[in-house]
């Protein structure tokens, strides 16, 4: 399957080149700090437990007489776990299935109409099973009812110096949380870039409410040029857990105030960083050569007891084929209370989603037999 996930490195689409201009700025400064030197940063204690990944079941999307083009390798799961939303990048539509893989309906096609999409960037369900979709190219949030009917379109970012920064998107209690970058910090100076707040909050009328969180200061010194924020929100605990696609560190913020309450991390034994600075403007061939076998964070998730930091290690064969079988997948598992590291796991497949303590792994991404395995940690 020749597809690169939105949060994977070395994307060449025109929309991602725009993001590179805005957020992935030239890194001409070598790393001058070790992570431990940052204020308030704590290296997590290692308190290893016996934690295993156990398979519950697997299911394949039932295509029937439909033709599936190329489903992205991440998807959203509704609050009750009964529905899932996938984006087909070739057909430019959302595919909604039940939790057994039966297709319920599809939404949209390529275009600029009310129920059409130019470039879907992020999407998620709210607690009422509305599906919120962000069309990056049109700078629009489109909200669809549980039956797939369009509820409203919200035009965002036009009146504020903000831009969307990654696919991370959550919605709850009438508010939508979207990753962002403050354009006033777009600069050749990476320390300036790291000052940006990272989450923009809008209501269901499209009104901007506030900014939350802040970029990890380490993004100013990382050797890889990516700075895209990755976050998850625990609405029960009013807590945001955040990282970036060039860092294994985790920041914790209060959902209501946006203040940072913790800053910690642990370098997994298989986490590999470049010793050389990788600049975004290098020729593609040079970037590929420099980043082969390196690690790239691709998700932060929570369960009842754990914080899961997920990353992928690339390989030369991945660069040749973009086949997900040629990446290695890892988890650093933290205890939610103590923030100690309790396990380092290698996963058998790509981790696409975590919901209700279940891990959803893509076992086969072939459109004709797109198979998802459901697992749990024990």
Based on secondary structure, the structural category is: mainly beta
Radius of gyration: 19 Å
- What percentage of amino acids are in beta strands? 35-45%
Helical fraction equals under 10%
| CATH fold descriptor | Neuraminidase
CATH class: Mainly Beta
Features:
378 residues; mainly beta; 4-stranded antiparallel beta sheet; 4 helices; 42% strand; disordered N terminus
Structure report:
With 378 residues, the protein is mainly β. It has a single domain, classed as TolB, C-terminal domain (Neuraminidase), CATH 2.120.10. Helices cover 7% and strands 42% of the residues. A five-stranded mixed sheet has the order 1-18-17-16-15, with no helix packed on it. A four-stranded antiparallel sheet has the order 2-25-24-23, with no helix packed on it. β8 and β9 form a beta hairpin.
SSE arrangement:
Blueprint: H1 14-23, E1 42-43, E2 53-60, E3 76-77, E4 83-88, E5 93-98, E6 103-107, E7 120-125, E8 131-135, E9 140-144, E10 150-155, E11 162-172, E12 175-182, H2 190-193, E13 199-203, E14 208-212, E15 229-234, E16 239-244, E17 247-254, E18 260-265, H3 284-291, E19 295-302, E20 306-313, H4 316-321, E21 328-335, E22 341-347, E23 350-355, E24 358-364, E25 371-377
Parallel strand pairs: 1-18
Antiparallel strand pairs: 2-25, 3-4, 4-5, 5-6, 7-8, 8-9, 9-10, 11-12, 12-13, 13-14, 15-16, 16-17, 17-18, 19-20, 20-21, 21-22, 23-24, 24-25
């Amino acid at each position: 399957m020749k597809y690169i996930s939105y949060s994977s490195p070395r994307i060449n689409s025109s929309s991602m080149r725009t993001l590179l201009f805005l957020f992935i700025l030239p890194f001409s400064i070598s790393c001058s700090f070790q992570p431990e030197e940052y204020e308030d940063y704590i290296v997590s204690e290692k308190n290893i437990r016996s934690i295993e990944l156990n398979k519950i079941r697997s299911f394949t999307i039932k295509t029937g007489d439909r033709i599936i083009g190329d489903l992205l390798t991440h998807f959203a799961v509704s609050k009750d776990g009964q529905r899932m939303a996938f984006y087909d990048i070739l057909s430019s539509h959302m595919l909604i299935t039940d939790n057994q893989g039966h297709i319920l309906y599809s939404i949209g096609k390529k275009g600029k109409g009310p129920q059409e999409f130019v470039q879907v960037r992020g999407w998620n369900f709210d607690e009422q099973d509305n599906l919120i979709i962000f069309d990056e190219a049109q700078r629009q949030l489109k909200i669809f009812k549980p039956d797939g009917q369009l509820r409203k379109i919200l035009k965002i970012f036009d009146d504020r110096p903000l831009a969307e920064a990654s696919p991370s998107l959550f919605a709850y209690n009438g508010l939508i949380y979207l990753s962002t970058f403050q354009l006033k910090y777009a600069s050749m100076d990476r320390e300036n870039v790291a000052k940006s707040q990272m989450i923009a909050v809008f209501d269901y009328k499209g009104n901007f409410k506030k900014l939350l969180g802040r970029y990890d200061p380490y993004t100013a010194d990382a050797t890889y040029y990516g700075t895209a924020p990755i976050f998850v929100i625990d609405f029960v605990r009013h807590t945001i857990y955040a990282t970036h696609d060039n860092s294994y560190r985790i920041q914790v913020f209060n959902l209501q105030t946006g203040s940072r309450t913790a800053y910690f991390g642990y370098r997994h034994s298989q986490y590999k960083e470049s010793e050389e600075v990788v600049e975004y403007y290098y020729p593609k061939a040079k970037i590929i050569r420099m980043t082969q076998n390196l690690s790239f964070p691709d998700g932060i998730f929570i369960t009842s007891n754990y914080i899961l930091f997920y990353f992928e290690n690339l390989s030369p064969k991945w660069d040749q084929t973009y086949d997900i079988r040629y990446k290695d997948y890892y988890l650093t598992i933290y205890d939610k209370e103590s923030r100690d590291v309790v396990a380092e796991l290698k996963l058998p497949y790509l981790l696409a989603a975590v919901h209700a303590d279940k891990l959803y792994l893509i076992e086969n991404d072939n459109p004709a037999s797109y198979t998802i395995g459901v697992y749990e940690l024990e």
